[in-house]
Amino acid sequence: MIVTDTATNLRTVKPRQAVLEMPEYHPPLGGRTALRLYFNENTFGPSPRVIKRLRTMTAEGLTTYPEREPVERIVAKHFGLDAEQVLLTNGVDEAIHLICCAFLEAEDEALIATPSFFMYDVSVQMMTPHLRKVQSDASLGFPFERFMAAITERMKLIIVASPNNPTGAVVSREHLLTIAAAAPQAVLMVDEAYYHFDGASVMGDLATVPNLLVARTFSKAYGLANLRIGMLAGNAELLKYVRKTSSPYNVNGVALDCLPVALADEEYLSWYSGQVRVGRERMMDGLRELGVPFFPSHANFVLMNIGPKHKELVAAMRRHGVLLRDRSTDPGCDGFVRITIGVEEHVTRGLAALRASLDEIDWSKQQVSESASQQVSDGVREFE
């Protein structure tokens, strides 16, 4: 779009109205020298086989365009799917974007529950202003009945994260299948980015639910966040349209070369996800001991309610060498802080820093406002 500035009589370029109105994400990537318990990343590293594979890369290999399809066949076989049922993407972020591009017209509606992953807002509102949001109550559980009531005939895309970020809550398979059945005209994308820390999945329902897509990432349990690779699995007919919106070279060759090696090392994956599950219980036990209210989690993080001193706690933890995430700008999360769960040593360090920091800021449970979890903030939100 080109507009004329009447004061100067000069024509200038303006973006689409949807771009002007869509929310903007702000990744907090600066100053990451402390223990990274704030970004839901793998805190240890990928499989040693991945590191070994990286060392075999050649200069010539870096000069060629990446071939995604051969690796999609390997991934499909790993998950018991046909190659046409798998699309590799530049992280789940791109998967969300591609789905929105493939299925949303400007007049269509999309549906999410909040609080949840901020990139849903960004990608949906790039295509349509009709994003419906169903806010969780103070428990931060999935609002199933109100969510079902929000489904309309204009709904073309529904996104549900299970386990959810930043709450750690899960949505039952029965509820997910009910949602899919209630809106056959809409794509239901189930974001299973944190699947490995919970174990429940609807991947096995892809053959019988034609409007279902499942997103997985290799950033978390596999430790490949820097390589930017994720996947969509689902009905081949649906994925045909999503594939059409994708660049043929959307996933870099280094990631494609390393992914089969990472998938093959199931022993490493079992070890790391086990470390997180045990560490998550330790963290929640530690929070109970400290009297800190928190939300039971099925992911690699725990969300806690610090109340008015949330910023002070984040600053104090940084001084103690540990990074936390302040989630107060998420809808219904005023005063909430999130801590990532990693390997045993990192959980130990995180708990020790938390005890020292809470004492340092003179925190007490009484300071936590009973109404804090009911508040919805309009502040600037951050990514991940």
Fold and architecture overview:
This protein is α/β, with parallel strands linked by helices and 384 residues long. 35% of the residues lie in helices and 17% in strands. The protein has helices at residues 17-21, 48-54, 68-78, 91-103, 119-127, 144-149, 173-182, 236-245, 253-264, 266-290, 310-319, 344-360; strands spanning 2-5, 10-13, 35-36, 86-89, 109-114, 131-135, 155-161, 187-191, 212-217, 230-234, 294-295, 301-305, 322-323, 325-326, 336-340. It has a seven-stranded mixed β-sheet, with helices on both faces. The chain has a four-stranded antiparallel β-sheet with strand order 11-12-15-14, with helices on one face. Strands 1-2 form a two-stranded antiparallel sheet. Mean pLDDT is 93; it is low at 370-381.
Give a brief description:
The chain is of the alpha/beta class and 384 residues long. The protein has helices spanning 17-21, 48-54, 68-78, 91-103, 119-127, 144-149, 173-182, 236-245, 253-264, 266-290, 310-319, 344-360, and strands spanning 2-5, 10-13, 35-36, 86-89, 109-114, 131-135, 155-161, 187-191, 212-217, 230-234, 294-295, 301-305, 322-323, 325-326, 336-340.
